[in-house]
């Protein structure tokens, strides 16, 4: 009778001591499928949201009434002091008040905004999507003061991983900019301009690095301007921002630090800079279509104090 012999099982040998563990290969970057960068003129937009809120002094009331889904009218009353130029270090203010009437037309491919003020100024803005990638933008300001009216037209083209813009303005102003994504998080760009009326020209370069948690930007121009900004997203509701501005022609240096805090019913923004200026801006949502606004700015060096409050009705 034959005896069945079970073959011995082979045991897996443990990894040798000191052997290198398996390392996951980093995901390869598809450089033919990079994201489209933001426009060159908006590379500092996250920092500007925190550091440059729309501060004002006095009282303002804004009312917007929608006539239909695309057309709306707005009314604004602004009362507060206006600063006038002075040879002395003290700030001279005179009380002013004016009314502003506006009309807005918003369509998926066409947006028109117009404002007229009681002092005779007229502001107009236009944005028209001529195609999926080509956009026409324009803005103009007309006033009765000589040589103070101006207008500008922008032609924007959006590619798969780049953007370019051409500018035409009065006073023989010509400009062009280009920004290109070179990696999933890094984009580089440059700009040139020519102001024929003043016989001035310039060239500039910019870099932007962004992730889900931070945005860092740098910009330098032949006019003497150097601008650096950094924004850190602490959480979904809190962001911290800082910037550094330097002009190597005039040797002016300014550094500032700001915050942006979004609560359930309000949004609080503020900043402090190296010139001794502290500012805060609060937007409180009281009800649907009803917002209360508080604005405060203190310039300790100039001993200039500004406080404003307002009410916004309508969306």
From TrEMBL:
Q: Which Pfam families match?
A: Porin_3 (PF01459)
Q: Top-down, what is the taxonomic lineage of the species of origin?
A: Eukaryota, Viridiplantae, Streptophyta, Embryophyta, Tracheophyta
Does the keyword Acetylation feature in the UniProt annotation?
A: yes
Q: Identify the GO cellular component terms for this protein.
A: mitochondrial outer membrane; pore complex
Keywords, A to Z? Acetylation, Ion transport, Membrane, Mitochondrion, Mitochondrion outer membrane, Porin, Protein transport, Receptor, Transmembrane, Transmembrane beta strand, Transport
Gene3D superfamilies tied to this protein? Porin (2.40.160.10)
Compartment(s): Mitochondrion outer membrane
What are its GO biological-process terms?
A: monoatomic ion transport; protein transport
**Would I find Transmembrane among this entry's keywords?**
yes
Membership in a protein family: Belongs to the Tom40 family.
The free-text function statement in the UniProt record for this protein reads: Central component of the receptor complex responsible for the recognition and translocation of cytosolically synthesized mitochondrial preproteins. Together with TOM22 functions as the transit peptide receptor at the surface of the mitochondrion outer membrane and facilitates the movement of preproteins into the translocation pore. Directly involved in the pore formation.
Species of origin: Abeliophyllum distichum
Protein's UniProt name? Mitochondrial import receptor subunit TOM40-1
Which GO molecular function, any one, fits this protein according to its record?
Answer: porin activity
Bilayer disposition of the protein: Multi-pass membrane protein
């Amino acid at each position: 009778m034959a005896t069945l012999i079970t073959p011995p099982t082979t045991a897996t040998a443990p990894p040798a001591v000191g052997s290198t563990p398996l390392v996951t290969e980093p995901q390869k970057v598809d450089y033919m499928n990079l994201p489209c960068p933001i426009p060159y003129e908006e590379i500092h937009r996250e920092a500007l949201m925190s550091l440059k809120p729309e501060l004002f002094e006095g009282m303002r009331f804004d009312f917007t009434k929608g006539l239909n889904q695309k057309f709306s009218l707005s009314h604004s009353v602004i009362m507060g002091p206006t600063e006038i130029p002075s040879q002395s270090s003290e700030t001279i203010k005179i009380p002013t008040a004016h009314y502003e009437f506006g009309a807005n037309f918003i369509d998926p491919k066409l947006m028109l905004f117009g404002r007229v003020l009681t002092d005779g100024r007229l502001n107009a803005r236009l944005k028209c999507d001529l195609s999926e990638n080509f956009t026409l933008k324009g803005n103009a300001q007309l006033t009765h003061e000589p040589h103070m009216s101006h207008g500008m037209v922008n032609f924007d083209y959006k590619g798969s991983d780049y953007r370019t813009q051409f500018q035409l303005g009065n006073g023989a102003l010509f400009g062009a900019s280009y920004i290109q994504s070179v990696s999933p998080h890094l984009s580089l760009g440059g700009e040139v301009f020519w102001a024929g009326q003043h016989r001035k020209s310039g060239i500039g370069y910019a870099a932007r690095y962004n992730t889900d948690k931070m945005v860092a930007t740098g910009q330098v121009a032949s006019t003497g301007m150097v601008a650096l900004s950094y924004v850190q997203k602490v959480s979904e509701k809190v962001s911290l921002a800082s910037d550094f501005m330097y002009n190597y022609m005039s040797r002016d240096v300014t550094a500032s630090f700001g915050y942006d805090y979004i609560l359930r019913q309000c949004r609080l923004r503020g900043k402090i800079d190296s010139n001794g200026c502290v500012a805060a801006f609060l937007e409180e949502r009281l009800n649907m279509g009803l917002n209360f606004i508080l604005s405060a700015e203190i310039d300790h060096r100039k001993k200039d104090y500004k406080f404003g409050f307002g009410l916004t009705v309508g969306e």
